Amino acid sequence: CTYLKTPSGIFTEMTLPVDEVINGHENDTLNTAKLTLPRINNTNHGEYSLDVPSTLLMIPKDSLYSFFENENIIDYQKSFIATYSESYNNYVFNNISGMITYMYQTKEAGLEANPNWLNEKENEDWNKVVIIPVTITTNSSGQIVKVVHDMSLTSTKLIGGENNPYDDVTLSVVYSKFSSNN
């Protein structure tokens, strides 16, 4: 499993399978990529049990500090949110296709400029994201106007890791292909 805890700042790092998603579909359009993160229930219930984080942010690992320092908001290209579903006991990032496309294009441009791009230390996290509990503020129209670290007392375990005894984290992908009939 992997953990999220606030306000202590314990986040989860995840490697997105960018190459696996794009491989064989280089000429197709990546329409949607839905990532589902199942939660492991807490079996110890007591008066000191913590609440579950209600909202999670997914951003590229290299944006961990700059996202908050620059007071960025969700753009659904390189930053996404998911809310906790009590009914399904999970978090769903509904369409991260923009991030997968961005990461793939970044890697391809890097390799075009330098065939050793993947071997350079500053590029080793090209397909890594961090999952961070956040609090969002919306305006009267429902638009997100502020994203900050969740400073309440929350904790949860998410399914993940190499020795995971549970079902895998799922990434559902939909492609489209256009052909011309001459």
The tally of strands reads 10
Mean pLDDT: 88
Proportion of strand residues: 35-45%
**Total of helices:** 3
Poorly predicted runs are: none
Task: Give the biggest beta sheet.
Answer: 10 strands, antiparallel
- Which structural category do the helix and sheet elements fall into? alpha+beta
Helix share of residues? 10-25%
Question: So what's the overall shape?
Answer: globular
Can you walk me through this structure?
With 182 residues, the chain is α+β, with helices and mostly antiparallel strands. The protein contains 3 helices and 10 strands, in the order ββαββαββαββββ. Strands 1, 2, 3, 4, 5, 6, 7, 8, 9 and 10 form a 10-stranded antiparallel β-sheet that branches. A hairpin with a 4-residue loop joins β5 and β6. The longest helix is centred in the middle third of the chain and has 17 residues. It is globular and about 60 Å long. The model has no long low-confidence stretch (mean pLDDT 88).
Task: Give me some keywords for this one.
182 residues; alpha+beta; ten-stranded antiparallel β-sheet; 10 strands; globular
Brief synopsis:
The protein has 182 residues and is of the alpha+beta class.
SSE topology:
Blueprint: E1 2-6, E2 12-15, H1 18-22, E3 29-40, E4 55-60, H2 64-69, E5 80-85, E6 90-93, H3 97-113, E7 128-138, E8 144-149, E9 154-158, E10 170-176
Antiparallel strand pairs: 1-9, 2-7, 3-6, 3-9, 3-10, 4-5, 4-7, 5-6, 7-8
